[in-house]
């Protein structure tokens, strides 16, 4: 496959910079939708177009169904090989409804309390998402037990930072010794030990609660894992790893999608007005939003899809081949790393007209939503194929519900003196693609909403 020139020892690593998804998209414009880079001593193929992804998923889904996990990921996740989250999909589906409404209502009350003064919407999204994921997984909101929450938050900031870190030993194995001296190994071990202690405590609490309290309480993901453990299909370590996987993926995914979607709406007032109009017509005056209402909000769904096309939560998806395959006319050997650049696929000019313009209409046809599902490979914000994101469905429903509620109950504007052009669109890559500066906004209550 075509390959940019490389340096001795480090190969193409120096070309990745701080924004690898953007750097790789720029390289793909010169070297094509399937190129081969050498990252240190590791040959890595990079896929940057919907066409190549389609060929991958249709012809070689099983060959590329394994995630490539970094050494840091494996250590922090209890060395669990390929966790299967599929059986727990049922739990996500069951718990979505009541939790979504309860937490979104709390969010509305908080926003109302700002009384039209500017506030940090990003911060509220982060807390909302954490609370929902904590309750759905462990059965409790962490703002209740302050000290535990502070500890958990601190550990997860470090956990996500470690997962997002560049580890030279993954690419140039003989340089792994550096991590003994730069303190990285110690950071990984400390974080793993502290999170493990906390999760052990949480699991013991839950087991004690299950034996002492026979009331039919709402089951949470941890209960499902403990039930499976009784049946021996899940070890205690893999139960902890599933919880961490949900925390790492779930919190960041929903948080960044909410943040970018509201940012795009606030900086595109015409689109904001159009979305709001549809929501308010469907919901009517004093009513609270129902699942049935959401199913009719086609323009809102298009807005969220368009936002995720431009700002995918996880811009690069690592895979590893488990057999030799022919892809796009090139041979990819067994056990070879492959990166799918979701960011580049979402901005591929062959698939999208004006790829850098925010245009939800591209997902609409005569007022109906064009269903971009897993069979459409140019839009794949939740990944594609059998390794698509298990929390995708839960996440999407929650995102739609929160944004619909925000637009139903409030009118949105920027703080005084700020125009749409002032909205900062810089990003930073931790585990997910975050907005660098928080979104500051002003919310004016809608006089005809149920909150009024």
Automatic annotation (TrEMBL):
Molecular function (Gene Ontology), one example: oxidoreductase activity, acting on paired donors, with incorporation or reduction of molecular oxygen
Alphabetized PROSITE patterns for the sequence: CYTOCHROME_P450
CDD domains tied to this protein: CYP71-like
Metal-binding in keyword set: yes
Cofactor annotation: heme
Binding residues for heme: 389
Protein keywords: Heme, Iron, Metal-binding, Monooxygenase, Oxidoreductase
Keyword check for Lipid metabolism: no
Gene3D superfamilies named among the record's database cross-references: Cytochrome P450
Family to which the UniProt record says this protein belongs: Belongs to the cytochrome P450 family.
Protein name as annotated: Cytochrome P450
Organism: Kalanchoe fedtschenkoi
